[in-house]
Design goal:
- With about 220 residues, this protein is α+β, with helices and mostly antiparallel strands.
- About 40% of the residues lie in helices and about 20% in strands.
- It contains 6 helices and 10 strands; from the N terminus they run H-E-E-H-H-E-E-H-H-E-E-E-E-E-H-E.
- The strands form 3 sheets. A 6-stranded antiparallel sheet has the order 5-10-6-7-8-9. The chain has a two-stranded antiparallel sheet with strand order 1-2. A two-stranded antiparallel sheet has the order 3-4.
- Strand 8 and strand 9 form a beta hairpin.
- The longest helix has about 50 residues.
Length: about 220
């Protein structure tokens, strides 16, 4: 009797132990499932909130995957807009969309926010003259000299008020003459590669660019 009772007791303990393990495993499994549902729910919520508005803000921050226009122009601070990408550029430049060259702004949009890299000509990094060279090859089917200083040597000079979309604007940030170039757009705005912010749209009349502006004109290509 004692042996039988002992065996039954052992069996009961064994069953209870296995049952405890099963319950513990089930609890862990349920916790993992709950975590998965929570992560999925949070991701879905973030996605929906990011797609809940069509408004985009002009910003001088990093490149946005939504295709926001990057600018450090003082006239655009806090400005919001909605519409197609071309309409957004027209809004920033304060012109009718029909005045814009779609191919030019498609190129700019594709490079917007790409970081500065001295000597670079790829989307991992590009310098000011490299960007202008690539733009002219793609948009205007023309070749320019590699450096900003040499580019300035082949332009037909213009006064700032006579500039047109696609003209070149030159700056001297140091003491050795021209060392920066950008492409004029409309209403004093130009696109260039900032050493700090990458490909961005700026304003010739803002203080930093106004005091470093040197020359401008149409390239002879």
């Amino acid at each position: 009797m004692n042996k039988l009772f002992f065996k039954k007791g052992v069996n009961r303990l064994y069953i209870r132990g296995n049952l405890f393990k099963f319950v513990l495993q089930e609890s862990k499994s349920n916790i993992m499932i709950a975590k998965s549902y929570f992560i999925f729910f949070l991701s879905a919520l973030l996605f929906l909130s990011s797609c809940s508005t069509k408004k985009k803000v002009l910003t001088s921050g990093s490149r946005s995957s939504s295709g926001s226009v990057l600018t450090d122009a003082s006239s655009a601070r806090g400005k919001t807009f909605s519409g197609s990408r071309l309409d957004n550029y027209a809004s920033l430049l304060n012109v009718n969309t029909k005045k814009l060259n779609p191919q030019l702004y498609s190129f700019i949009d594709d490079w917007m926010g790409i970081p500065h890299r001295m000597g670079g000509q790829t989307k991992s990094g590009v310098d000011c003259s490299g960007f202008v060279n690539l733009l002219y090859i793609e948009v205007y089917k023309g070749n320019l000299p590699r450096t900003s200083r040499d580019m300035e040597g082949i332009v037909k000079r213009k006064k700032p008020e006579k500039l047109e979309e696609g003209d070149l604007v030159f700056f001297s940030f140091g003491k050795k003459g021209i060392d920066h170039v950008g492409v004029y757009l409309h209403n004093n705005k130009f696109v260039h590669v900032s050493t700090r912010k990458g490909v961005i749209i700026s304003d010739l009349t803002d203080s930093w660019y106004a005091k470093t502006f040197v020359d401008a004109g149409s390239p002879k290509i």
